[in-house]
Design goal:
89 residues, alpha+beta, Alpha-Beta Plaits, two-stranded antiparallel ribbon, 2 helices
Length: 89
């Protein structure tokens, strides 16, 4: 499971808690083109599927390892992800 791989690299830790994540479902769409090798769907055809969006925290020191682990464990050729830096105010 992708989440567990990311947890193993240090994501999802907050003070005295670990394996913290928010998971929501939504509809994702994509159309593989060119040299794409999709895990789901077919080249040049629009695909729409239900997927999970997972959010978790990660300290800067572990971020690159967590991203690499996510990409390695995820079945998709291209993984959609966003990194948002949080600041303590």
């Amino acid at each position: 499971m992708v989440k567990n791989t990311m947890f193993d690299e240090g994501a999802g830790k907050f003070n005295n808690y670990e394996n913290c994540a928010c998971q929501t479902t939504g509809k994702w769409q994509f159309k593989p083109i060119g040299d794409a090798k999709p895990a789901i769907g077919y080249l040049d055809e629009l695909e729409a599927i239900e997927e999970y969006k997972v959010e978790m925290m990660c300290v800067d020191d572990n971020l690159q390892m967590v991203i690499e682990a996510m990409k390695f464990a995820h079945p998709y050729e291209e993984v959609a992800y966003t990194v948002i830096k949080m600041e303590n105010l």
